[in-house]
Design brief:
Chain A: Its main location: membrane. The complex is a heterodimer of chains A (about 325) and B (about 1250). With about 325 residues, chain A is α+β, with helices and mostly antiparallel strands. Chain A is built from ten helices and eleven strands. Chain A has a five-stranded antiparallel sheet with strand order 1-11-3-9-8. A four-stranded antiparallel sheet of chain A has the order 2-10-6-7, with no helix packed on it. Chain A is extended. In chain B, the strands form seven sheets. In chain B, strands 16-35-34-33-17-29-32-31-30 form a nine-stranded mixed sheet, with helices on both faces. Chain B has a nine-stranded antiparallel sheet with strand order 19-18-28-27-26-25-24-23-22, with helices on both faces. A six-stranded antiparallel sheet of chain B has the order 3-2-4-13-5-11, with no helix packed on it. Among the domains of chain B are: about 165-295, Calcium-transporting ATPase, cytoplasmic transduction domain A, CATH 2.70.150.10; about 460-485 and about 530-645 and about 655-700 and about 740-750, Calcium-transporting ATPase, cytoplasmic domain N, CATH 3.40.1110; about 945-1175, no CATH class; about 1215-1245. The longest helix of chain B has about 40 residues, at about 940-980. Classes of the chains: A alpha+beta (about 325), B alpha+beta (about 1250). At the A-B interface, helix 3, strand 3, helix 5, helix 6 and helix 8 of A face helix 11, helix 32, helix 33, helix 36 and helix 37 of B.
Chain lengths: ~325, ~1250
């Protein structure tokens, strides 16, 4: 008796059930009811979510100003490239941005570059993370080609990305008073503390022949060079924004912000655009309606589908488990 | 063990004293002898063997191979190169090999490890599997090679020697029950006349024993000592695969004697009924005819796998296409724009001066060289080929291997496929063909050992016009039961209406009487001990009740024929516990007769050369008496005579001729006064035949002494004649005495089917499978079995294709071809004409006709006819023909064939078929060794195909399709991203994400799907065998499905990619103003992919156990865990993915919302598709799932509707038990209709009826 019971118990064990392929299983069958319920549910979820995100997006105030053409003086516009490459010409330029809606601090300052392939493979690979962290202690800078060394000393920081650092600068003046721009904490904290060395100084950066982009203050360690850190988080797409700083004062409607900028960066040789964007943020980030529209669209189509299936179900109802659809009951079935 | 004990038991029997009726080998005619002699020494006939001098065969030119046999594919040296070669013959593997090689030269966009590791893993696992399989083969070889045999060393001493050490020329002694180690020349045997009996079942499947006879000259060599000085030289043919020919001569002493096949003992056959033989090794090892006959087992691939190759090609062309686009795009950018992108510092001819000298010298970025744009584009092309390699599912092969091994394990472990009797279970010997089991359309089956147990049972007899042993067949019973069930409700509804329903009553009565009778029969069945070979229950005959019968004399004579007319002998049992004897005879039929006659009280107890002793039950004294019968003559059985007779005289000196034989032969030879029971007997005969019983008619005649004397002189003369005319004379002599017989009756023996065979065939037929029977047995037997298995039935139109003569000259061949062609054409015409009608067709063809029918120009017609017949039976076919038929059917119909057999004669067929199945219950492992699956019994085929085959087919096809989907969905996002990076080859995802994709993040759910998915449970599979048709019709793996899944992948990838780039850029993705960089976008997109592909598999799965849940949701969870852990590693290792989840995307609500949105939207098209399909174009499994759900609530599986549907699903069956029952019902109904009509007529004609109808009151 006992052995019987034990055997029985052994049979019941999970492994036995597994080998006999008779594990307890849930076998969901898609019934019309479920289908309609799922579609309805999706509609009910997505439409409000979409509306909420749209609202969040609409709350964001954004001012964008393209300045790359206007900041080149009229006479030089025929040959912008030589203008930008001529160090003797002062590059300062003033832009006026009108606030059309109340902007609550913090207001994020972005520069936007278009048609700039920061995601080019050659470009992306041309950096040395180890050097950024350890500085000259790390000698192997072969990954930084072609901007690798200067006078047989490795450039710190090496590589194309650092070398092409964006170097336009912006100053904001409202009603004669300078707006305070906070340029701290614009990069990831982990980047600052773990990826860029605290004792690494760009002592020989950009002092060679061809000057690419911005220069760095050799006195400041890389971990505090937030512009560089932001720049070195390469963008995914050829049109991108990067954080420049934060204005920590509210801007009122009809305020006019004067931007004094240094138009140093060369986007002219490849026809790239430069823009300046001031934007507040919501819990969802910046102004982007796409998510909201997509959600509303998905919700609406789900609802529509729910209705369509409901109608179809009412009109051409196939009884649940209808045998007449079985092959042997179907007339056309042969064989 | 068994062999040893039986040897002991039968020790005292001298088998040479046995009369044999097996056809002996015809002695060679002098002409043939001359022809053979001329051949010796010619090319092809140049072998020289020095008997008893094996040392002479150590040097050339007489160096022949050892008797070592190897069936392994590889050896230690060749394994690595050959196995690697096999692996890289797969296109996908070769591609990944190239990718790995390129990765060594910095061409690849990924790290080396991420390319090489998966390849090594995949190839390693496959090779490991090969190695293990080959190791098993090696062990089996070792087992065979290490068997021992007594071999002569010198001076008449015989010692045990391993088989593998035998050499040509060795003299060996083989004992009873042992296999011959190689092809031997029979020198002498333990019998004085130099005869030995050989069982060749492993070679040709024939179960009867064959007689081999040594030369007169070597007869004296029957002691060990004789061989000390024995020397002889054999000249014979070279090794060849022909089992039935042997040409040679032996120079022994100073004479030369010709040799014939009857002196050749073939490897793999077995010595039976002979104590020992001496033989000399003629062919050894791979030269033996048996080994020459076996072909190396081909590696089989399933249909799905072959189609998978085509899918891989499609994906390859996609790969090449997008790579071309990429490289072309890169070329355009490089030519026009890229030089202007100063931030890339590309060397430009114009600006080269601007560059630092050292920089321009060092410049070596071959991918972006503006001065050589085409070369750069070419390199980009190669890089793109590797980059988009994720379109090719590398892990598909390894996943499939893993899944198949697990499936195999589940098949092997299935308790329902375990045979308690033999303690064996089904073994899937290769894992390649699991899903092929679900697509079988045609089963080619061997008979003996597969369908039948090779055991005869005495079932019924008809004596003096009375049939004994029950009338009802199972078919009748089932038909009546079902009709009862059908009629009950019907009857009830019309019962009260009017009296006309009374006409049902006779029918009802008959049905119930059927059941009553059968109930009784069942009752008696359970009583008494089961006697092997005797399955006869009829109280009128058993327990000596026959003495109350009316025709006592005829009954007694009948039993005497049964007890005397045979060649068997009783076994002298050592322990006389019972007075029952057991018998040994040349055919199992005779044994069953002897057992039966013993049961009836006519025990055959002794036999000497001229005397047979019966212990008879004497009805007058009611006691057992021993009577002696003098055996005067024995007229042997032969396949042309189809009868055997004995002439005996009893103690009173009366001379009887007792004869048994095929009914047609006996009926032709009846005396006018001997036909008293002919009519009744004929009726019984046909009913026996319909049940698939083998029948023999019994007859006798009394001979006057004078007539006997005169005949005997003629007969002895004929016997003494030497030469070709001997046979003819004997035949004439027999004819003169075997006439004017008096018919006694017939017996019916059952070639016992294995357990569950009819039911299994029935189920398989319901599943839409065609079953062909290929047997080496003779036609009558084959047809009997056809009936017994319900492959044939009475209302079937049968076509018999046969030839009467052997083909001897070319002219005749031509005539025969015409003949056969004509037969085929006329049959086919009939098929075409009557196709619409219900009656199915059966085709019976024998080996000779088949030989012609399978020749070039006739075969198409033949196959056309055969395919249109519901069942096909081929009898007297050779192993080669079996294989040939299998191949032709496979080629002609293009359908998946399964061959099942148990003996070495089936090996060819098993290897040729798409799936070979061996029966492992019997002895002899050749079939099993060659097979892909081995079953202990035929009946397990049902579950193997209908349940496991169906499941595996569904699983593998779902799995492959999902794999394609998953890799397309993932791979294409890589391509889309290229469009945004100016085709520079940058990858959106971290290397490690990508490596993880196939290895961990998506592999487990798909393996769980492949192992555990079930559309319906196993019971329901068996209840609705018609579901199986999904496989042969290939609904789950059709091209439309494949394309659909690829499109689904394209849609998913588009949705995922576009949604991500539009939502995440260019504005901030978090409240703190951070924008998404390449790593955040990569991680987010990748998250969406992981979610989408895992949710997709959840949509496919219809059977969720905890394993599926764990694997699907666990995989998603694993991705987050991985991201967390990877992000927490120091940045030296994790690079830009450092803290990506914690700091980059995790805190952003956008990230989580994108995931939800993208998953829902990308799955929406597929979801809509399945909703529409389920609602409006449901497939069979969908409906059955729903039905199951419906009825599960009420737990009424035997619900009326359920049963009805089950029966409806069987409707289209044309063969099998159910079909037979259907046919029976039809005929019952017709009878009923007639009865009704006649009753109606009688009623309407009756005056009362007339008066009623004409009366105004009605």
């Amino acid at each position: 008796m006992d052995t019987d019971r034990e055997r029985h118990r052994a049979r019941e064990t999970a492994f036995y059930l597994f080998t006999q392929q008779s594990l307890p299983a849930c076998k969901p069958v898609l019934t019309p009811g479920w289908v309609i319920a799922i579609f309805l549910f999706m509609g009910v979820i997505f439409i409000p979510v979409g509306l909420v995100t749209l609202r969040a997006s609409h709350c964001v105030v954004e001012i964008v100003d393209r300045y790359d053409i206007d900041c080149v003086p009229e006479p030089s516009r025929m040959d912008k490239v030589s203008y930008i490459q001529d160090d003797s010409i002062p590059k300062n330029c003033s832009r006026f941005m009108k606030v059309h809606k109340y902007m609550k601090a913090p207001i994020y300052i972005y520069y936007q570059l278009d048609n700039y392939y920061q995601n080019h493979r050659r470009y992306v690979k041309s950096r040395s993370d180890k050097q950024l962290l350890d500085g000259q202690k790390y000698h192997d800078t072969s990954s930084c080609q072609p901007v690798e060394s200067n006078n047989n000393r490795p450039i710190v920081p090496c590589g194309l990305i650092a070398w092409s650092l964006f170097n336009d600068t912006f100053e904001f003046i409202r009603e004669g008073a300078e707006l305070k721009v906070n340029r701290k904490n614009i990069a990831w904290k982990s980047d600052r503390s773990h990826k860029f060395g605290k004792n690494v100084y760009p002592f020989n950066f950009q002092n060679g022949t061809l000057i690419g982009g911005g220069k760095l203050n050799p006195e400041i360690p890389l971990s505090d060079q937030e512009d560089l850190i932001v720049w070195m988080r390469t963008s995914a797409l050829p049109s991108f924004r990067k954080l420049y700083g934060r204005i920590e004062e509210d801007l009122d409607v009809d305020d006019v912000v004067v931007v004094n900028l240094m138009n140093n960066y060369n986007t002219y040789s490849f026809g790239g655009k430069k823009k300046l964007a001031l934007s507040t943020s919501s819990w969802l980030g910046g102004k982007n309606d796409f998510l909201g529209h997509a959600c509303v669209f998905a919700g609406c189509s789900s609802l529509t589908l729910a209705i369509i299936f409901m109608l179809l179900h009412v009109k051409y109802r196939r009884p649940y488990g209808d045998m007449s659809y079985l092959p042997w009951n179907r007339k056309s079935f042969s064989g | 063990m068994v062999a040893a004990s039986s040897r002991k038991r039968k020790g005292k029997i001298r088998w040479s004293k046995l009369y044999s009726f097996a056809a002996c080998f015809r002695p060679l005619t002098s002409k043939e002898r001359l022809a053979a002699r001329e051949l010796i020494g010619q090319p092809g006939f140049s072998r020289v063997v020095f008997c008893n001098e094996p040392h002479l065969h150590k040097r050339k030119p007489y160096k022949y191979p050892y008797n070592y046999i190897s069936t392994t594919k590889y050896n230690v040296l060749t394994f690595l190169p050959r196995a690697l070669f096999e692996q890289f013959r797969r296109v996908a593997n070769f591609y990944f090999l190239l990718a790995a090689i390129f990765s060594l030269f910095s061409l690849a966009p990924f790290s080396r490890a991420s390319l090489i590791a998966p390849l090594v893993f995949v190839v390693g696992i496959s090779m490991l599997k090969e190695a293990v399989e080959d190791w098993h083969r090696f062990l089996q070889d070792l087992d065979v090679n290490n068997r021992t045999v007594k071999t002569h060393i010198s001076n008449g001493v015989f010692v045990d020697k391993l088989w593998k050490e035998l050499r040509v020329g060795d003299v060996v002694k083989v004992n009873k029950g042992e296999y011959f180690p190689s092809d031997l020349l029979l020198l002498s045997s333990g019998n004085e006349d130099g005869v030995c009996y050989v069982e060749t079942m492993n070679l040709d499947g024939e179960t009867n024993l064959k007689i081999k006879r040594c030369l007169e000259a070597s007869l004296c060599l029957n002691e060990d000592e004789e061989f000390s000085k024995f020397k002889a030289t054999v000249h014979c043919e070279d090794p060849n695969p022909n089992l039935y020919t042997f040409v040679g001569n032996i120079e022994f002493g100073k004479e030369s004697y010709p040799l014939s096949p009857s002196q050749l003992l073939l490897r793999d056959s077995k010595l039976r009924n002979t104590d020992y033989i001496y033989g000399v090794v003629i062919f050894s090892g791979h030269d033996t005819k048996a080994v020459r006959n076996s072909t190396r087992s081909p590696s089989k691939r399933s249909r799905i796998e072959r189609k998978m190759d085509h899918i891989i090609y499609i994906l390859f062309s996609m790969l090449v296409l997008v790579s071309l686009v990429s490289s072309f795009g890169s070329l355009l950018y490089l030519r026009q724009d890229m030089v202007d992108w100063w931030y890339l510092q590309l060397p430009d001819d114009n600006k080269v001066n601007d560059l630092d000298d050292s920089n321009s010298e060092k410049y070596d970025d071959r991918f972006f060289n503006p001065s050589k744009p085409v070369q750069s584009a070419g390199l980009q092309f190669i890089r793109a080929l590797i980059l988009y390699g994720y379109l090719i599912p590398i892990s598909l092969y390894v996943s499939i291997e893993v899944v198949k091994v697990l499936q195999t394990m589940l098949i092997n472990k299935d308790i329902e496929l375990y045979d308690d009797v033999t303690c064996k279970s089904v073994q899937a010997r290769t894992s390649n063909l699991n899903e092929e089991l679900g697509q079988v359309e045609m089963i080619l089956s061997d008979k003996t050992g597969t369908l039948t147990c090779n055991q005869m049972e005495f079932r019924k007899c008809s004596i003096a016009g009375v049939s004994y042993g029950g009338d009802i067949t199972e078919v009748d019973l089932a038909a009546s039961m079902r009709m009862n069930a059908d009629f009950e409700p019907f009857e009830f509804s019309i019962d009260e209406t009017d009296g006309a329903t009374r006409s049902f009553e006779p029918f009802e009565f008959s049905v119930s009487s059927f059941s009553a009778q059968n109930g009784n029969a069942r009752l008696t069945k359970t009583e008494g001990p089961v006697i092997k070979g005797f399955n006869f229950r009829d109280d009128r005959l058993t327990n000596e009740n026959w003495i109350h019968g009316s025709n006592l004399f005829d009954i007694t004579m009948f039993f005497r024929v049964m007890a005397l007319c045979h060649t068997g002998i009783p076994l002298e049992d050592d322990n006389h516990k019972t007075d029952k004897l057991s018998y040994e005879a040349e055919s199992p039929e005779e044994v069953s007769f002897l057992i039966a006659s013993q049961e009836f009280g006519f025990q055959f107890c002794r036999r000497t050369q001229s005397l047979m002793v019966l212990r008879e039950f004497d009805p007058s004294s009611m006691k057992e008496v021993e009577r002696e019968y003098k055996l005067l003559n024995l007229l042997e059985f032969s396949s042309s005579r189809k009868r055997m007779s004995v002439i005996v005289s009893n103690e009173d000196g009366q001379i009887f001729l007792l004869c048994k034989g095929a009914d047609s032969i006996i009926f032709d030879r009846l005396a006018d006064n001997g036909r008293a029971y002919e009519q009744a007997t004929t009726m019984h005969l046909s009913s026996y035949a319909e049940d698939g019983l083998r029948t023999l008619a019994f007859a006798y005649r009394t001979i006057e002494a004078a007539e006997y004397e005169s005949w005997n002189t003629i007969f002895t003369q004929a016997k003494a004649t030497i030469g070709p005319e001997r046979e003819e004379l004997l035949e004439q002599a027999s004819e003169t005495i075997e006439k004017d017989l008096i018919l006694l009756g017939v017996v019916a023996v059952e070639d016992k089917l294995q357990k569950g065979v009819p039911e299994c065939i029935d189920k398989l037929a319901q599943a839409g499978l065609k079953i062909w029977l290929l047997t080496g047995d003779k036609r009558e037997t084959a047809i009997n079995i056809g009936f017994a298995c319900s492959l044939l039935r009475q209302d079937m139109k049968q076509f018999h294709l046969s030839l009467s003569r052997d083909a001897e000259s070319n002219n005749q061949v031509k005539d025969m071809k015409e003949d056969i062609l004509q037969q085929i054409e006329s049959s086919y015409k009939m098929v075409c004409e009557e196709r619409n009608k219900e009656a199915p067709f059966g085709l019976v063809i024998d080996g000779k006709a088949l030989e012609i029918a399978l020749r070039g120009d006739v075969k198409d017609e033949f196959l056309q006819l055969a395919v249109n017949c519901a069942s096909v039976i081929c009898c007297r076919v050779s192993p080669k023909q079996k294989a040939l038929i299998t191949r032709l059917v496979k080629q002609y119909t293009g359908k998946t064939t399964l061959a099942i057999g148990d003996g070495a004669n089936d090996v060819g067929m098993i290897q040729e078929a798409d799936i070979g199945v061996g029966i492992s219950g019997m002895e002899g492992m050749q079939a099993v060794m060659a097979s892909d699956f081995s079953l202990p019994q035929f009946r397990f085929l049902e579950r193997l195909l209908i349940v496991h085959g169906h499941w595996c087919y569904q699983r593998i096809s779902k799995m492959v399709l999902y794999f394609v989907y998953k890799n397309v969905a993932f791979g294409l996002t890589l391509f889309y991203y290229e469009l945004y990076t100016s085709f520079s080859g940058e990858v959106l995802y971290d290397d490690w994400y990508m490596t993880m994709f196939n290895v961990m993040l998506t592999s487990l759910p798909v393996i769980a799907l492949g192992v555990l998915e079930q559309d319906v449970s196993s019971d329901i599979c068996l209840q609705f065998p018609a579901l199986y048709q999904q496989g042969p019709r290939n609904v789950h793996f059709s091209w439309s499905r494949i394309i659909g899944w690829i499109l689904n992948g394209v849609v998913s990838s588009l949705v995922i990619f576009l949604a991500n780039i539009y939502i995440l850029s260019p504005t901030a993705m978090r409240e703190n103003g951070f924008v998404a960089d390449i790593d955040s976008l990569g991680a987010t997109t990748y998250t969406c992919i992981i979610w989408t592909v895992n949710c997709q598999i959840a949509l496919i799965t219809s059977h969720f156990t905890w394993i599926q849940h764990l694997s699907i949701w666990g995989s998603i969870l694993l991705w987050y865990i991985f991201l967390l852990v990877y992000g927490a590693l120091p940045p030296n290792f994790s690079g830009n993915a450092f803290q990506v989840l914690v700091e980059g995307i995790g805190p952003a609500p956008l990230y989580w919302m994108i995931t939800v949105l993208v998953v829902v939207v990308s799955l929406l098209p597929y979801f809509i598709h399945i909703v529409i399909q389920r609602s409006y174009f449901p497939m069979d499994d969908h409906i059955i799932q729903e039905m199951e759900q419906c009825y599960k609530k009420y737990d009424v599986r035997d619900n009326e509707m359920w049963v009805r549907e089950q029966r409806n699903s069987q409707r289209s069956t044309r063969i099998g038990f159910s079909a037979r029952v259907d046919a029976k019902i039809l005929s019952f109904n017709q009878q009923l209709q007639q009865k009704k009509l006649s009753i109606y007529r009688s009623v309407t004609n009756s005056p009362i009826y007339r008066s009623i109808t004409t009366s105004p009151f009605s």
